[in-house]
Amino acid sequence: MLILMAMVEDGQDGMPLDASEIKDSDGDGIGNSVDTDDDNDGVSDVLENASGRNSEVDDYLLGTGRKFSCAMDGDGVKCWGRNAYQQTDVPTLVNPTKLSVGYQHACAMDDTGVVCWGRDVEGSTVPSVLSNPTDVMAGKFYSCAMDDTGVVCWGRNYKKQMLIPDLSNPTSVSSMNQHTCAVDDTGVVCWGSNGHGRRTVPSLSNATAASAGWAHSCAIDDSGVVCWGNDNSGQISNVPELSNPTVISSGGFHSCALDDGNVVCWGRDNAGQSTPPTLVNPTKLSAGYDNTCALDDTGMVCWGNNGNGKSTVPAMNIVTDNDGDGVDDAVDAAKYDASVQ
Ligand SMILES: [Ca+2]
Ligand SMILES: [Ca+2]
Ligand SMILES: [Ca+2]
Ligand SMILES: [Ca+2]
Q: Were both Cys, which of 103, 235, 241, 269 would link to 274 (CB 3.0–4.6 Å)?
């Protein structure tokens, strides 16, 4: 047994230094056989398995494009909205784990690697050869992935989107239009178009997250949220005081953050994209070109521009009673404890 385990190549072994364990789904150094929350989403393996969720992956993902939106639920990935370029025709995916929606195409990660669909411009939907990819990102006519070598991009290069600077242990990558931002050991690094100064990163203190919007960018650092680039709608100058931002998402001309359990948006609001409806414990967020989507205890919710029905969320297979006590998470005082309602 030990010999068989030892023959798992490090690249496929989540625990390369532990012969008794080959899988560590969330990469926290605790193997699945002893980790009680394999995907580190805060819901225990026991509860996930009991309620029909997948205990080894983040079950619910969402993304917003120019005129379409996508999400992953218990059934897989679905997209809705404009389909002029087959961007809502999701190909067959085997155990998808990641999802990113770009301008007119989208990409996901599944058991086969990175898969992209929708409009192909200069190879934007044909992934480069990747070495153990861990995440994928779809921009406007190009895409990027994170793998063993760092960040790899493919597709249109007319704004030097393919000119990836040296990165030191990048942990995330974000794009929407013609520039990309990554978080690495040195902070936030952006490349591609610099129109409106969108890739000229200001001084940041311990940045933990970055999001590239249409012509602006934002990051979370010790001071809260800092934004730079195009300020035509107050997306830079009207950043609100935030107490504990944990998620940042920049869209067309607005940005939203998850702050102390609330979604806060600023910048352009011509279609209501910066005016969130009442949300109950939102945990995920995606700011689109002129709409915004979030995941909360009631399921998936989108607001703002609804052209092509991109903000009309279809029926989703999302567990909204996690402890199975018959009381919906939204009104359950202890949603992960069946003994308390
Ligand atoms: Ca683990
Ligand atoms: Ca979990
Ligand atoms: Ca899960
Ligand atoms: Ca419940």
A: 269
